[in-house]
């Protein structure tokens, strides 16, 4: 999966990675927010979910210490990362900013 993850974040389009856990209540809230984000940004960006319990090495490699943590990558470069729940407008704004 780590190789696949590296390929995913090499995208020309921004890739929003949601590091989450199935037992995490705020992660469930973030997940529904991301559905709205996806509707608004469409093909401008990709959204990828990484379960930190299934892929602890990917989470560790990316310095994830708490869930949910969101990160935006483009061409393999980390552009933005923050923990906590974020709203639709903030995330759409970030993705649009990085998609230009």
UniProtKB/TrEMBL annotation:
Keyword presence, Phosphoprotein: no
Residue numbers annotated as active site: 24 (nucleophile), 27 (nucleophile)
Residue ranges annotated for the Thioredoxin domain, each copy included: 1-100
SUPFAM superfamilies noted in UniProt: Thioredoxin-like (SSF52833)
UniProt site (Contributes to redox potential value): 25-26
Site (Deprotonates C-terminal active site Cys): 18
Keywords, ordered alphabetically: Disulfide bond, Electron transport, Redox-active center, Transport
Cysteine disulfide links: 24-27
GO cellular component, as recorded: cytosol
InterPro entries in UniProt: Thioredoxin, Thioredoxin-like_sf, Thioredoxin_domain
Gene Ontology molecular function, alphabetical: protein-disulfide reductase activity
Record GO biological process: cell redox homeostasis
Protein family: Belongs to the thioredoxin family.
Protein name: Thioredoxin
Species this chain originates from: Epilithonimonas arachidiradicis
UniProt lineage: Bacteria, Pseudomonadati, Bacteroidota, Flavobacteriia, Flavobacteriales
């Amino acid at each position: 999966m780590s190789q696949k993850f590296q390929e995913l974040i090499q995208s020309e389009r921004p890739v929003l990675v949601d590091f989450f856990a199935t037992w995490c209540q705020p992660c469930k809230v973030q997940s529904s927010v991301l559905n709205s984000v996806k509707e608004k940004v469409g093909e401008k960006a990709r959204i990828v979910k990484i379960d930190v319990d299934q892929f602890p090495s990917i989470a560790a490699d990316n310095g994830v210490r708490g869930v949910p943590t969101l990160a935006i990558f483009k061409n393999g470069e980390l552009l933005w990362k923050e923990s906590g729940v974020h709203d639709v407008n903030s995330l759409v704004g970030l993705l649009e900013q990085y998609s230009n």
